Amino acid sequence: MEVKKKVPTNTITRDIKDLAEPTGNIYESVVILYKRANQIALAEKKELSKKLEDFRTDRDTMDEVFENREQIEISKYYEKLPKPDLIAISEFEDGELYYRRAGQEETREVSGASAEQGE
What we know:
By secondary structure, this protein is mainly alpha-helical. It has helices at residues 16-20, 26-53, 69-80, 84-93; strands spanning 97-99, 108-111, 113-114.
């Protein structure tokens, strides 16, 4: 997963009022952030699994662990990426998410990615 913009890799202090402003409710904002962070985490996991699948062989067992430099570099890259919740907060603050309340036809713009999945 490629991060297109500068997202902090550590947690920073944010004003709750700023997070609640787009939705009018801090709890609604937290649910939107949770759902988006979950989407990002699942996408990262799928991408990482796909890349690491190339290194898997049929004869690999728990006792047989081969260190592969390329595999280690891929793992280190993903460890250095910003956490999904920080990416979601950044998208939310920048107005890049779209969300919709259940049973409501109107879509509200908060940012460009969709946080309307009910998973």
